[in-house]
Design a protein that fits this description.
By secondary structure, the chain is of the alpha+beta class. It contains eight helices and twelve strands. A hairpin with a 4-residue loop joins strand 4 and strand 5. Helix 1 packs parallel to helix 7, helix 4 packs across helix 5 and helix 7 packs across helix 8. The longest helix is centred in the N-terminal third of the chain and has 44 residues.
């Protein structure tokens, strides 16, 4: 039996339509994948900011790790969805089968033509060649039924876009809860290595050294988001540590004040909301003891008196 061996290119109309379907499908796949990954990213972003708000994550390394995880998961979702969708339209055979499924009137003619034309140079019996010519002419005649935009549409695209819009609205609602606080959480997520806080603390003048037994007044002034309480941590030279919960002054809500009698050297720091001060040290020393006090009195010249010395028995120093 004689056989015919030659290359059989697809008819131009079929080739052109498959090309259009492929690029429409790739475009839709990109949009859908971006929408899904955006919804996932925004959801994880809200979760990360909520954790930072509740737990007050001050370590930049931890915040960097959380931001990195959110980016990595979102990128994985994007690449996974994109590849799974694009891989379905890479070959003409996949596209032709998709077209035949959506247009029953074609009766699988397009996938048959693509499959038989994919033999590329292998010998084809004359009878099969006649069948191929017949099916190809019928497929070309029915090409007007194939609308690339209709074939390329995705049933899940609408759901992906709705999910992205809902995520954006949820993010807007979250940020509007307390903009002064949430705006800082937003910056802390995208710039995790920077020291950003909604509340700023400034320690007042620290007197050091201080005589033993004197009163040390610790004053902390807050700005930004004002907090209703804070925690003062004091570490003494002896190793003892105490933590005190402080409320702001009734008439000065920006001020936290605590007084204590200095018995030994200590250091302190204060935390309120997401702000934490550095350690501040106060050195406590013994006041000098005077065994004897000597006063030299120098009278004005017009008195004509010579300078003389006195030794008070009970000096008031």
């Amino acid at each position: 039996m004689s056989q015919i061996s030659h290359s059989r290119p697809l008819p131009a109309v079929i080739e052109r339509t498959l090309h259009q379907v492929r690029w429409y499908a790739i475009g839709i796949a990109i949009v859908e994948s971006v929408a899904i990954s955006a919804a996932v990213f925004i959801g994880l972003l809200i979760l990360a900011m909520t954790l930072d708000w509740i737990m007050t994550i001050s370590e930049s390394g931890v915040r960097t790790l959380i931001s990195g995880i959110v980016y990595a998961v979102s990128a994985a979702v994007l690449s996974g969805n994109l590849w799974s969708r694009i891989s379905r339209v890479l070959t003409n055979r996949q596209l032709s089968m998709r077209i035949d499924r959506q247009i029953p009137q074609l009766e699988e003619r397009w996938s048959t033509v693509v499959q038989l034309n994919g033999t590329n140079g292998r010998p084809v019996p004359p009878l099969q060649q006649q069948m191929l010519s017949q099916v190809t002419s019928e497929a070309v005649a029915l090409s007007s039924l194939v609308e690339p935009r209709q074939i390329s549409r995705s049933e899940t695209l609408k759901s992906a876009l709705v999910a992205m819009v809902m995520a954006i609205l949820l993010l807007a609602g979250f940020l509007s809860i307390h903009w002064q606080q949430t705006s800082v959480l937003w910056q802390r997520f995208f710039q995790p290595t920077l020291l950003l806080t909604a509340t700023q603390l400034d320690v007042g003048e620290v007197v050091s050294p201080l005589a033993r037994g004197e009163i040390a007044e610790l004053k902390i002034i807050q700005s930004g988001v004002l907090r209703q309480h804070g925690v003062l941590t004091i570490e003494y030279e002896s190793g003892h540590e105490e933590q005190l919960r402080l409320n702001p002054e009734a008439d000065l809500p920006e001020h936290f004040v605590h007084s204590l009698r200095a018995g030994e050297t200590f250091r302190f720091r204060f935390a309120a909301g997401d702000a934490l001060t550095e350690w501040h040290s106060i050195r406590v020393i013994d006041a000098p003891d005077f065994e004897q006090v000597e006063l030299t009195v120098i009278a004005p010249e017009y008195t004509g008196q010579e300078p003389h010395t006195k030794r008070p028995s009970c000096p008031d120093i």
